[in-house]
Hints:
Elements: E1 2-5, H1 10-21, E2 25-27, E3 30-34, E4 42-47, E5 53-54, H2 56-61, H3 70-88, E6 100-104, H4 112-122, E7 128-135, H5 138-144, E8 150-155, H6 175-184
Parallel strand pairs: 1-2, 1-6, 6-7, 7-8
Antiparallel strand pairs: 3-4, 4-5
Amino acid sequence: xxxxxxxxxxxxxxxxxxxxxxxxxxxxxxxxxxxxxxxxxxxxxxxxxxxxxxxxxxxxxxxxxxxxxxxxxxxxxxxxxxxxxxxxxxxxxxxxxxxxxxxxxxxxxxxxxxxxxxxxxxxxxxxxxxxxxxxxxxxxxxxxxxxxxxxxxxxxxxxxxxxxxxxxxxxxxxxxxxxxxxxxxxxxx
Length: 189
């Protein structure tokens, strides 16, 4: 078994899941894509060097095409590579092949990042793929079920738009806290 967190917010949640399951913990670096015009609105997501996953409806509503987002994607991908090196150093990512992989995030609103991450992991041949989140928008949770073998979502409050609405403290998780958390776990590839 392997627990993978979607940083930054998924790391504190995933550390508790990994502890409870006595499983190794690592991160899967994924990120939202937004536009400079509306940085608060995700329109896509990327993982590693995979092609971006876009919300086609959002692109159409904003009169955008994938071609016009090339610079945004390059910038975001460079940032994700920087974070991966910061969190993992030269250590290779653990293998998902043949293992039960539990992907953990702090919540599901649009589901874009989680979908991109699950599709990335599925191509690496896990025996079982589980998505675990403490809170999620009911519509998104329902839409995500086909992307994984199991989905665990503890709360689905009506009208959830931002996962942070559900937390008493939803402050930014500092990079130093993430690296310390990861070093506390012995990751086996």
